[in-house]
Structures are given as structure tokens and as C-alpha cells.
Amino acid sequence: MNWPKITVVLPSFNQGQYIDEALYSIVSQGYPNLELIVIDGGSTDNSVDVIRKYEKKMHYWVSEPDGSQTRGLIKGFARASGDIQCWLNSDDVFMESTLFEVARYFYENPEIDAVYGDAVWVNRTGAVLREQREIPFNRFIWMYTHNYIPSVSMFWRRAVYEKVGGLDPSYELAMDADLWIRFAEVGRIGHVRRTWAKMRFYPEQKNRRLRAESDAEDIRIRERYWGGSYPSYHTLKRALAYVLRVGWKVMTGCYPLGYHRLERLERR
Fold first, then answer.
1. Which of 29, 51, 88, 188 has the fewest CB neighbours in a 10 Å radius?
2. Count of CB atoms within 10 A of residue 198's CB?
3. 7-21, 82-96, 230-244 — which is least confidently predicted?
4. Could you give the CA distance from residue 60 to residue 35 in angstroms, rounded to a whole number?
5. What is the number of structural domains in the chain?
6. Per mean pLDDT, which of 128-137, 198-207, 255-264 is the most reliable?
7. CB-neighbour burial class of residue 228 (10 A; exposed 0-12, middle 13-18, buried 19+)
8. What domain range includes position 97?
9. How does DSSP assign 179-237, residue by residue?
10. % of the chain exceeding 90 in pLDDT
């Protein structure tokens, strides 16, 4: 097959301790049609020195204030020309062969507009905490539980990104959830039981530090579809969605040992 161009946008700000591993996980795959774009928000640590190590493998990089991660991503995707797109946070890591597997998936499934795989949660040093095995996208379950699509393992066709108008800069923490549900409005989201990335989990992580703000943005997304603060029978629908989610995960072997302790952390 002719390998499609894959654009990976990597946003970063003062993540010098992690960004080397993130960049290496992208370029070391040897994917033959890679477009790597690095948007650094003006880091004051050693990030720029690390970025320069890889600049010959990059299509574009910049280090300057951008206002927020979302605005940095928008800036990156404005320069993207890949048929397939994604972003990788600078403290996360792709698994080996991820880009090849993604390319093959889209080639074999032309009806799919976006696809996500599973992920592995790791700590600061990269030690495995648990696998994040997920169910396929289900709008009802997604809408009444939480955004269970791991952004680190999500890939999409450029056409669907352009069709929905890209990322919304008014979201600084739940911009991924907002994008996924808009993808679902106009296209099809697939899922594969393949681990495509490692996702860092530590106290300083932005979504953990700013959990309340992230939850508020998440509710704002849902209110857009609910038509108000809470829809009729919300409590019942939420309970049903959780029962369906747990049952589906049990039936498909999604719960590794130690799941319950970390699942509670995931929802905090």
C-alpha cells in the first residue's frame, strides 16, 4: 500500500523531562510519510534543546507563547497537510508500530472517519499502572458517563476535522471531548483492541490539577446536546449508562487486575 501522510502535532510547555521520550516514540517508528509539527508554548526549561535534537525529522516547530494548549494545537493543525491527523501530548508516548497500524486501519476501513485504540497508564518514570481497555464508541454511554476515548490513542481523517471546523479555542481542558462528539455528529468513530499509546498519570498532570474546571467544561459540552442543565430522567439515564458501560467492559474483558482503584482516580 501507499502509506498515507500522517500528521502528528505535539504541543508542549516546560515538559523537558518527558518530551525527549515523546518525540523519540514518534520518529523511531520509521514511518515513511510522517509530518511532525511541534508547538512549544515558550518553554523556559530544556525543552527547546531537546526539540532541536529532532528538528531534521520535523516539518515545522516553534517555541513562542500561544495562550493555551488548545490554541497551540489549532496553530499546529493549521499547518497540517496529512491525510490522517492526531496529537500527542509531550508527556505521553506512542507504542511501537502505532502509526503503521493506524494507516492500515484507515486503508482497510474507508467508511470510518476517526478511530481510537486502547492505552496504558504509566507513572512519571514510565512504570505501568494499568491498561486502559475501552469499549467502542456509544453515544448514549459517552453522553451520560464520561469521555472515555483516550485522546492519546485517537486518530482521524483530515476531512472530518475540517468538516467540523477543528478545535474550539473556548475549551482549554475538554477540547478533546468537544472534538470527538462533533466528529460523531458528522461521521463514524471506530475502535480497535490494540494498545497504541502510553498515557502519563501523575499529580501535576493538567487535567488532575484542574479537575473542577475540566468537569465544568465537560458538562458544558453535554448541556449543548441536553438542551439545558440536566435532561429529563437524568439520574436514571446516568445509572443506566454506567450499568451498560460496566456490563460491556466485563463481557469484553476490559477490566485488568487493579482496575477499580484506578478507575476511581480516573473519574476524579
1. 188
2. 24
3. 230-244
4. 8
5. 1
6. 128-137
7. exposed
8. 6-266
9. HHHHHHHHS-EEEEEEEEEEEE--TT-HHHHTHHHHHHHHHHHHHHHHTSSS-TTHHHH
10. 85
> Does a structural domain hold residue 1?
no
Q: Which CATH number is 110's domain given?
A: 3.90.550.10
Element (H, E) at 86: strand 84-87
Q: Do 48 and 14 meet the contact criterion of CB atoms below 8 Å apart?
A: no
C-alpha–C-alpha distance, residues 116 and 147, integer Å: 12
Q: Which amino acid is at 266?
A: E
Rounded to two decimals, what is the model's pTM? 0.93
Grid coordinates of 247: 456490563
User: 196-231, pLDDT tens digit by residue?
Assistant: 999 998 877 776 677 788 889 999 999 999 887 888
